[in-house]
Structure formats: structure tokens, C-alpha cells
Amino acid sequence: MNERKIAVIGGGAAGMLAAGYAAKRGAKVTLFERNALLGKKLGITGKGRCNVTNNCTPEEFIKNITANGKFLYSAINRFSPADTMAFFEELGVPLKTERGNRVFPVSDRAVDIVLALKKFCLQNGVHILTERVTDFIRAEDGTLCGVVTEKRSHAGFDAVILSTGGVSYPVTGSTGDGYRLAQSVGHTVKEPIPSLVGLTSDDGICAASMGLALKNVSVTVTDTAKKKVVYKDFGEMLFCHFGISGPMILSASAHLRPMQKDRYVVSIDLKPALDAQTLDKRMLSDFEKNKNRNFANAFDALLPAKLREPFIRLTGISPDKKINAVTAEERRRVVALMKGIPVSVTGFRPITEAIVTSGGISVKEIEPHTMRSKLCPNLYFAGEVIDLDAYTGGFNLQIAFATAHAAATAAAEA
Ligand SMILES: Cc1cc2nc3c(=O)[nH]c(=O)nc-3n(C[C@H](O)[C@H](O)[C@H](O)COP(=O)(O)OP(=O)(O)OC[C@H]3O[C@@H](n4cnc5c(N)ncnc54)[C@H](O)[C@@H]3O)c2cc1C
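Above are the sequence and the flavin-adenine dinucleotide SMILES. Below is the predicted complex in C-alpha cell form.
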């Protein structure tokens, strides 16, 4: 019988899986969660549906990690997306794979994933305490032997797994406590920055078209400093009071490093299915049909209502001009704009609104096979608290599960 006593700090995706696995391996586990309920963030993932993993191979998985992908190689090979899927199905949550290999519970309810993880903890005898950990208790040799919470001290632990998440969506409990705890034993925290987040812009078209969701458009993001395309995609986006957001823009944000005001330009192709020549022909025929109308009415069939007025302003052509007076050069300008409305990015929205935190505890100070601290031999890390993050598609939860599995296995068997 494994007599090891393990404290897991943070009852999110990573903490619950780590606690359950360590207990399954015979350790006596106490899970500390500051909220009254476990998995508050997990419960809102995937717009309440929880994109629990991505149904891909470990090799494909690594390609979707924004930074430090190699660090995950060992952990993801030992607890792969296929293992995550088998894990939840065994716990009684049937799963389905959607577009882009995104995996969701058949029920479309994130809460089913939360309840399954809680059940896994309870089935294996994890002791759950809803207390916020504020400090470690250290033995004379520098190892950890307990934790201090806002209520009391808990001593007698052989190992600690830190899984307190990042700093995004702090209302769910992830407020950066884990960074402070890790720093107290000498760890380096790479500055947390937002990832998978909306982009701000001063360009008038954004505020003027606020609330407009564009479907079936394509975006190309150029790093003007390096004169290089850093992101290209086709899908959905949204104009907001602050700039732009929506699925494609969130994904694009993970590629904008370093963020500098006006360094990146997002070019929106409103008609990706038509090349410039074909679009020009279509416009010529539209203009012909409406030649006696004002330019202000030229786009009734071509553009969504909210976009027309700001788009006309961008063309620089007077809205009162008769369509038959628009020159070929002006028409080419219109076509060029339709194939690429430029939006200059001034920055990220605040980290509190980001889907994930990029940055965190430096992977240089963590053993990749075990998630064990290289500075404090009985401290382990799991989940978003580590300097690891990925694109959208279920990859971030898979990072949490794979690192939690590695940490739990090593901590329980040390
Ligand atoms: C709106 C939204 C949607 C998302 N959707 C998806 C998705 O569909 N798919 C996907 O892969 N990823 C998604 N993510 C990202 C994913 O939720 C996170 O990457 C993942 O939850 C990280 O798990 P974690 O356990 O490391 O951290 P968290 O889930 O943040 O859990 C950390 C836990 O630690 C607790 N805690 C913090 N400090 C203390 C302390 N001092 N003492 C005790 N407890 C403490 C917190 O209360 C919290 O419960 C989404 C994120 C957001 C914000």
C-alpha cells in the first residue's frame, strides 16, 4: 500500500485529474480548492459544451502548442488525446468528434465533464477541502511538508502538486496564486500575457460595424515589422466596440508575438471565393444595373447593412456620386478593399478576458517526464500554471490532463 500523502492545490481540470490518479495509485490525497465548487472554469469551457480534447495524434498535438511544445513530448505520449477520450468514456461520458477533430461530450454539457472528474476523485477516495492555499510549509532540508490555507495549516505531506491555473478569467478562481507560491521556493515565472483573446483597434470600421459577425470570410495577418504573414484562416469573426474578436481572431492572437501597437495588420477578405478579376466583373455588372443610383447604394446586394456605410467611407468615394461616374480606377480600389479591409491592431484585450494565459512557471525549471520541480524535489506542477499554451481546439485542456497525469504518476510513485 502506497502511504504517500499528497496535497493537490487547485481543483480545476488539471487538479481533479491529478488528485484522482494519485489516489488511484494508492496515495492519500487532499485536494484544496478555493471555490465552493470544483471546476468552475471547466464548466464554462467551449461555450458551456467543453471541447475536452482534440482527436489527433501526439505528433499533431505538439504542432498546436504555441510555445514549448517539445517539453510536452513525453507527457503527451503517455497520456494522449486517445487516453483522454477513453478516460471520460469509461467514466460514463460518451464523446463525439466535430469539425477540426474537436471532441465534445455527446450531451453538449461541460458540466458532465466536471461531474465525471469529481466522481473520479471521490471514487478513489480523494479528500476535498474548499480552502484557499496561501503558503507552503517547508522542512529544514527545503522540501515541502505542508500547506497553509486561509483557515489553518495542514502538515504531514510527502509531495505537493500545484495546479492553480493561470490568470485569465480570474472570476473562476485562477488569480495567479500558483505563481506566487512557486516564486516563494525560487521558481521563475515568465510574464503572463493574454492568448486566445480579442484584438483592439482604433480603426473606425470596427466601432462602426460593432456587433456584426462575418461568416465565410478569410483573414490574413501580417507582421509589418518582419513583412511576413503570421496567420491565415477562413471562417468567422466579429466586429466589436474595441476592435475585432470571434473564433478566427482568437486563434490569430496566439501568433502575435511580440505585441506592439500597429505592428500587425489583419486583412479581411469579404469575398474569398472570388478572385479580384471575377469580383471586378461582378461589380461592373452590378454597377451597370444601378448606374443611375448613388454610390451609397452600390453595395446593397454585396455587403451586410452594418458594413456598408463604414466601407463606403474607406473607399474615399463620395456616397453622393452617381454610380455611372465611378471610374475604373475607383472600382479597382473598391475591389481591392473588398478583398482586404485592413484593420491595424493596437493590442490585446486584457488578460482577464483571455481564454488562456501564455507564460507562467518556466519549463526550464521542470522535469518534462515527471513535471517535478528541479528546485524543490517534492513539488510538481500541472496545467495552465506552467508556461505552456496552445491554439483553440481542445488542446489546452489536453495540456492540463497530460501534465496532471505525469505529475500524479510521479508524485504517487516517487
Ligand atoms: C471561457 C473559456 C473557455 C475555454 N474553453 C476551452 C475549451 O473548450 N477547450 C480547451 O481545451 N480549453 C478551453 N479553455 C482553457 C481551459 O479552460 C484551461 O486551459 C484549463 O481550464 C486549465 O486547467 P487548470 O486546471 O490548469 O486551471 P483552472 O481550470 O483555472 O483551475 C485552477 C483551479 O485552481 C483553483 N485555485 C487557484 N488558486 C488557488 C489557491 N490558492 N488555493 C486553492 N485553489 C486555488 C482555482 O479556483 C481553480 O479552480 C477555456 C478557457 C476559458 C476561460
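The longest strand covers residues 228-239.
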